[in-house]
């Protein structure tokens, strides 16, 4: 019996099958050749641009291409950033508009503060539960006064769609300079010494374009609650011309700081501090406006959380004030952020990772050369 031959494909001659295989082989070879040529060409172009342009210009070019890619594939970019451990400053940094809005709130409060002073400048005491229109726009909920002291007033208003409140403090100090009070808030190393509730407080990453910083803050909460940890970005601005200082912070997600099972991660957090010196940054006396909200994720009723915040905020401000007085008496050195040199901004973007506290490796990665006050 003759050996059987493998039949050709039905309706297709054997020679055509062999020819099809040859065509596929040639096509694969051609694709490989074209790919290799393009890779070599890309390398040559990269080397050429490297010889022509500086490192800053190359980074600016890459950033522009990256922003275009982000605009078209925003969700894919966030997923890729999370997988690769990259923090997207373009998405998360504090914007100029946020700083400007905080400054406008301060101007509005200065106008409203005339309601609490008589024609002779004497303080007018308001009763509890007083509703005062300190809102900048009519669309906002009215603020309810919950505390009226000689040197500060505390309001709150409900956050729509939640069981939480937003808080606002407007106060005055006359025995410390605005410079010390502002610097004490920014110096994370000093806060570890004067704030006994701090478990951890480190600068994780810094944006070279705006000076924004990512902070990881772990703090004790009243017993029997677990300790909380915050990951937030902050940015400050010192307006010498308008005699104003602004510090804005809000919670962000950072791929390099995963959740720790020992702490409860607070994902909703916002804070704006605005300081208006009575005269100059180095003379005693200033007004301040602090607007604050967060979601501590507790199981306690709304009134309990409100009581904790309402009582805890004045206590924190008093500790901050005491720490500023110690800095004024030079009991401890505090970094001077107001005298920092301006950040060079020529359209480039960059970041500086902070493996430890912000006092380390400042000579090459700091957005500004900081002195001591």
TrEMBL record:
<keyword id="KW-0496">Mitochondrion</keyword>
<dbReference type="InterPro" id="IPR041949">
    <property type="entry name" value="START_STARD7"/>
</dbReference>
<dbReference type="GO" id="GO:0005576">
    <property type="term" value="C:extracellular region"/>
</dbReference>
<keyword id="KW-0175">Coiled coil</keyword>
<dbReference type="GO" id="GO:0042092">
    <property type="term" value="P:type 2 immune response"/>
</dbReference>
<dbReference type="GO" id="GO:0140104">
    <property type="term" value="F:molecular carrier activity"/>
</dbReference>
<dbReference type="InterPro" id="IPR002913">
    <property type="entry name" value="START_lipid-bd_dom"/>
</dbReference>
<dbReference type="GO" id="GO:0008289">
    <property type="term" value="F:lipid binding"/>
</dbReference>
<feature type="domain" description="START">
    <location>
        <begin position="136"/>
        <end position="329"/>
    </location>
</feature>
<dbReference type="InterPro" id="IPR051213">
    <property type="entry name" value="START_lipid_transfer"/>
</dbReference>
<dbReference type="Pfam" id="PF01852">
    <property type="entry name" value="START"/>
</dbReference>
<dbReference type="GO" id="GO:0061436">
    <property type="term" value="P:establishment of skin barrier"/>
</dbReference>
<comment type="function">
    <text>May play a protective role in mucosal tissues by preventing exaggerated allergic responses.</text>
</comment>
<dbReference type="GO" id="GO:0001773">
    <property type="term" value="P:myeloid dendritic cell activation"/>
</dbReference>
<protein>
    <recommendedName>
        <fullName>StAR-related lipid transfer protein 7, mitochondrial</fullName>
    </recommendedName>
</protein>
<dbReference type="GO" id="GO:0006954">
    <property type="term" value="P:inflammatory response"/>
</dbReference>
<dbReference type="GO" id="GO:0120197">
    <property type="term" value="P:mucociliary clearance"/>
</dbReference>
<keyword id="KW-0809">Transit peptide</keyword>
<feature type="region of interest" description="Disordered">
    <location>
        <begin position="343"/>
        <end position="373"/>
    </location>
</feature>
<dbReference type="InterPro" id="IPR023393">
    <property type="entry name" value="START-like_dom_sf"/>
</dbReference>
<dbReference type="GO" id="GO:0005739">
    <property type="term" value="C:mitochondrion"/>
</dbReference>
């Amino acid at each position: 019996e003759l050996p059987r031959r493998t039949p050709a494909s039905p309706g297709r001659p054997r020679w055509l099958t062999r020819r099809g295989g040859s065509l596929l082989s040639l096509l694969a070879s051609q694709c490989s050749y074209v790919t290799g040529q393009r890779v070599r060409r890309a390398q040559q172009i990269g080397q050429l641009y490297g010889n022509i342009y500086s490192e800053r210009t190359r980074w600016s070019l890459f950033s522009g291409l990256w922003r275009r890619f982000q605009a078209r594939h925003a969700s894919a970019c966030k997923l890729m950033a999370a997988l690769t451990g990259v923090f997207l400053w373009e998405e998360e940094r504090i914007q100029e508009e946020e700083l400007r809005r905080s400054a406008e709130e301060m101007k509005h409060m200065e106008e409203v503060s005339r309601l609490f002073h008589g024609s002779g400048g004497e303080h007018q005491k308001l009763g509890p539960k007083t509703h005062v229109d300190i809102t900048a726009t009519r669309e906002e909920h009215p603020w309810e006064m919950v505390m009226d002291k000689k040197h500060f007033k505390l309001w709150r208003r409900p956050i729509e769609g939640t069981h939480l409140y937003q808080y606002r403090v407007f106060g005055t100090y006359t025995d410390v300079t605005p410079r010390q009070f502002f610097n004490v808030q920014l110096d994370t190393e000093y806060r570890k010494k004067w704030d006994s509730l701090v478990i951890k407080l480190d600068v994780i990453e810094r944006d070279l374009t705006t000076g924004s910083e990512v902070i990881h803050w772990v703090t004790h909460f009243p017993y029997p609650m677990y300790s909380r940890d915050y990951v937030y970005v902050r940015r400050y601005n010192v307006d010498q011309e308008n005699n104003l200082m602004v510090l804005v912070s809000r919670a962000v997600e950072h791929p390099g700081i995963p959740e720790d099972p020992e702490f409860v991660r607070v994902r909703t957090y916002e804070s704006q501090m605005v300081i208006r010196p009575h005269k100059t940054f180095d003379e005693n006396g200033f007004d301040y406006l602090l607007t604050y909200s967060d979601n501590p994720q507790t199981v306690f009723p709304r009134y309990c959380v409100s009581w904790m915040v309402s009582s805890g905020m004045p206590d924190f401000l008093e500790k901050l004030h005491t720490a500023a007085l110690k800095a004024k008496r030079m009991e401890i050195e505090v970094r001077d952020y107001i005298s920092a040199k301006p950040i060079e901004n020529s359209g480039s973007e960059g970041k500086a990772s902070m493996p430890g506290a912000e006092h380390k490796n400042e000579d090459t990665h700091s957005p500004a050369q900081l002195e001591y006050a």
